[in-house]
């Protein structure tokens, strides 16, 4: 079965500045067609929206990429709003939840930084509240119903671990390598 890189674009209207971000993973076509691979990527987006994303976060595009397959590059506009009920003021987007998954025991562990529209009421100190942890657990269960998330070699990710701590992940351009910046600023 061919493996496709999937990219889901999200817009968070509660954020100031960097409102756009993506979720990247791999999906397979289930032995059928590239359209089926896109449907699986869409199911990943629906699982994210239906479990961990609040209403102010909307999935706006689902894309798959595999240039070795006919019709293997598809970008389709969608509108999938989140459904998780939230209260409180929005936290900056660099506050993320982390989940890790592997295809089997002892296999390479893959890490995803989930920007799930965290608010002040979703966090107690440095720990995610129980409702958020339950939502993340529901997400991994949804991904395992029909194994949706795969590694780049096509192996299904089925063993999931989540942390209950809030983590920090800078937004897009802050992680980019720039001349003169090496683990902090060091003159070249």
Characterise this structure.
The protein is built from two helices and ten strands, in the order E-E-H-E-E-E-E-E-E-H-E-E. By secondary structure, it is an alpha+beta fold. The chain has one domain. The strands form three sheets. It has a four-stranded antiparallel beta sheet with strand order 2-1-3-4, with helices on one face. Strands 5, 6, 9 and 10 form a four-stranded antiparallel beta sheet that branches. A hairpin with a 2-residue loop joins strand 7 (123-124) and strand 8 (127-128).
Provide keyphrases for this structure.
188 residues, alpha+beta, four-stranded antiparallel β-sheet, 2 helices, 10 strands, 18% helix, 32% strand
Return residue spans where pLDDT drops below 50 for at least 5 consecutive residues.
none
Strand sequence of the main sheet, in spatial order? 2-1-3-4
The geometry reads as globular
Q: How many DSSP-defined strands?
A: 10
On the 0-100 scale, what is the average pLDDT? 88
Radius of gyration: 17 Å
Proportion of residues in β-strands: 25-35%
Cα(first) to Cα(last) distance is 47 Å
Overall structural class, as computed from helix and strand content, comes to: alpha+beta
Helix content: 10-25%
Q: Count of helices?
A: 2
Order of helices and strands: EEHEEEEEEHEE
- Total domains: 1
User: Biggest sheet, open or closed, and with what strands and sense?
Assistant: 4 strands, antiparallel
A few lines on this structure:
A hairpin with a 7-residue loop joins strand 1 and strand 2 (20-28). The chain is of the alpha+beta class and 188 residues long. 18% of the residues lie in helices and 32% in strands.
